[in-house]
């Protein structure tokens, strides 16, 4: 009896304490994201793939670069052992276990995608904040600075993404860091423009005027007021960019701009290896392709739901 | 000496290839220590632009300022941006019209209130929080420590305006500029907010400029009133003389157009004909002339002077309403 009473008391205290903390818009948005089925599906997909990337090596039945099948592999005859006991998804043209390669490959593909997005996000946001601040609060000199940054961004935008990436790769040399920087650079203009645009919208809002009227200094206004209000679309864009970045990174690897050691598993490389056997062993292309698509789908689902949740116009 | 002495303030919006738009066209008024001064007028008469100009909040580009605004002897219009930032919030603070959009939606009330305290009074951490809670308590927000953790969207309209007032009075400014602080609120809350402002002015010895289009607010609050029309003061007087004996036909018309509770049911309202856009440029005569029932030939040809008609009751009219004609 007294235990029950204790529990009720504890619950009451808990409920009271919860009521005391304010609900920020972020928390409200998070709640809304959690209630949306596509977002949950997307988040689950992402978590599964993250787990695979982290723990993949524990589950991989074989070394991804070791030849597990020494039997008859013949391109001419189209004899490729398909899925069978021991090799869940069959083996590739060199007799390596597809399943193990796929699992280990998740690690690199996700890592490249995430790092590339982070690269684009950081550089793009820095440019966006500089430009937005200059244009919104900087007066005559500011609008000049803004023009310089934005014309630079326009130049980046005017070059097709893949072409930009390939030329970057040609300049820096092959390798995964190149892929990350290249894919990140493609996405810099999007982040910069997005942040600048929403900062400009906020710079003329009443609360900025109000805090200016209270004597708050400019850096405080920019980082304490304008940026927190402008960052939501950027975060949504980052989630959506993750999907694209994974695809783009795979594309660059497919073109041979990725890891110099092509035996190392990466979904793009696996696709590149598989294309020669498309007619005899389409599954070799399908598995990595499906992996890429599902990952991208996961990020897109989450990103779109976040966009809806954070969009004040869609607020119910 | 007055706390604030605005002399011949002009604000012109310039645009290449187009004539200047003179939003404020030579406005002069004074604010005495501890007094509430009303700036009254309809939309577009320049009352908000006047307040923004005093606060130095107008954009630098495309705006030409003229005249003086002496605040305790220093001209606010001549201060450099850094010095002006120190004045804002500490010596002169402003309360805005729309409390929701004037608060940052993603930051808690507490952070927004303590920001001012940190900026001007150097308070930090718990001291700032405690002072913020005291401020919220002073402006009549119940359970202030809880409210500090909440966000603007969780507060009611009246409470938001109270929070904004708390931020404005946080540093005990010498002058408060309230730009239609009650327009976005419903009538009962309006009355509470006005009462609060009155109390604060009395308690802190602050002076206040009350910008409004609501003559009821003026009647209940202001010590002296300046009626603006088309960027100029057309009548300035103490509250009592102005309401008892308006001299300018515009003021007279405004007071006459207010529906009265004791009027007959079938008595029609008496509006002022035309609209603000019918104004004449001041250089060519009285801006109100096209709408004025009392217009005479002398109205056109040049701007009428703001004349002292009767012991401090200033009126800018060549044919003012006389005592006998009043209804």
Derived from helix and strand composition plus strand pairing, the structural class of chain B reads alpha/beta
The assembly state of the depicted protein chains is heterodimer
Number of helices of chain B: 10
Shape of chain B: globular
In short:
The complex is a heterodimer of chains A (316) and B (327). Chain A contains eleven helices and no strands. Chain A is an all-alpha fold.
Structural description of this entry:
The complex is a heterodimer of chains A (316) and B (327). With 316 residues, chain A is mostly helical. Chain A is 74% helix and 0% strand. Chain A has helices spanning 2-20, 25-35, 37-59, 98-137, 139-158, 161-172, 176-203, 206-213, 218-254, 267-274, 283-310. The longest helix of chain A has 40 residues, at 98-137. Chain A is flat. The relative contact order of chain A is 0.14. Chain B is α/β, with parallel strands linked by helices. Helix content of chain B is 31%, strand content 24%. Chain B has ten helices and twelve strands. Chain B has helices spanning 47-55, 81-87, 109-121, 125-138, 144-148, 157-169, 187-204, 215-221, 239-244, 249-256, and strands at 4-15, 18-31, 36-40, 63-71, 74-75, 92-95, 175-179, 207-212, 224-229, 232-238, 307-310, 313-315. In chain B, the strands form two sheets. An eight-stranded mixed sheet of chain B has the order 6-7-8-3-9-10-12-11, with helices on both faces. In chain B, strands 2-1-4-5 form a four-stranded antiparallel sheet, with helices on one face. The longest helix of chain B has 18 residues, at 187-204. Chain B is globular. In chain B, 45% of the residues are buried.
